[in-house]
From TrEMBL:
PANTHER family: PHENYLALANINE--TRNA LIGASE, MITOCHONDRIAL (PTHR11538:SF41), PHENYLALANYL-TRNA SYNTHETASE (PTHR11538). Mg(2+) binds at residue 262. Its cofactor is Mg(2+). The lineage of its organism: Bacteria, Bacillati, Bacillota, Bacilli, Bacillales. This is Phenylalanine--tRNA ligase alpha subunit. Signal peptide: none annotated. The keyword Nucleus does not apply. It comes from Alicyclobacillus cycloheptanicus. It is an enzyme of class 6 (ligase). Keywords: Aminoacyl-tRNA synthetase, ATP-binding, Cytoplasm, Ligase, Magnesium, Metal-binding, Nucleotide-binding, Protein biosynthesis. It catalyses: tRNA(Phe) + L-phenylalanine + ATP = L-phenylalanyl-tRNA(Phe) + AMP + diphosphate + H(+). The keyword Nucleotidyltransferase does not apply. HAMAP family: Phe_tRNA_synth_alpha1.
Amino acid sequence: MDDVLRIQSQLEGVKEEALRALEPLTDVRALDEWRVQYLGKKSPVTQISRQMGSLTAEQRPVVGGWVNDVRAALQAAFEARKQEVEALLLQARFAAETIDISLPGRRRKRGAVHPLMKVIEEIEDVFLGMGFQIAEGPEVETDTYNFEMLNIPKDHPARDMQDTFYLTEELLLRTHTSPMQVRTMERMRPNAPVKVIVPGRVYRRDEDDATHSHAFTQIEGLVVDEGIRLSDLKGVLLEFARAIFGPDQEVRLRPSFFPFTEPSAEVDVRCINCGGSGCRICKDTGWIEILGSGMVHPRVLDGAGYDSKRFSGFAFGMGPERIAMLKYGIDDIRLLYQNDLRLLCQFNRVM
């Protein structure tokens, strides 16, 4: 009987000690350490329960019930304290993360359309207004479409003007959007008129500097129909120049050479900076070149399936980067590709 009373006293002592140790705990880690100490396999309650082997068969159920009662009481106290601690921690977290809704909000910076995209969209709108359609073509092109069907055979010296990124002997990154002249005529033949512009990325092995980039944008234009003349080309380009640069703008055509047009012409506009009086930007000529153009070469028409004796057409190609630089006074083409927020923020006011 003395052993039973001793075990009962030990259990009461462990219970009181455990509850006193549990009461001041205020964090989850300390609670977990308490659980291991008083409810784990090496806890005092477990050690006391092992003394039951020395008891009689009648005493063991009684002592076993006391052990289970103490363990259940400690487990219940642990769960209750754990909930209290978690609630306190959650309240502290809410207090720390409270948002003062009376404070003024943070102003978000306004975005702006990139100047290059703005110019491309303006150009597209101008030509859509003149009845053109917008077409797209592959950036990985074949040598046949990029050169040969544009009257540039493999031994033609004009290939030296466009240092090319070749992927295989036949595949390359297109050096201009002009291959879409042929692709569009092949798709639409024998229907007329053909009136398309082709915006897209092109690639050349140029050294990047203030006026050159190895990857840039080009917009090709093509018109094919019966009776198309050089005067039609000039009229379309004059309308384009006045829409982009102002209603008083003028254009000038200078003889040039492109293998896929004959005759060919470089197209100038009056200097945007000085209005034609001469300045540093136009090198005192009063004119600035903006694009190349010409009448579609008969060989290109015939190769694409249009009878050159019946049909004629004109084509032109421009670089939107150059137009954006002229229009907005940007002096380095690399600025258009650096994603510099300082440049883009300026166009919140300009556009």
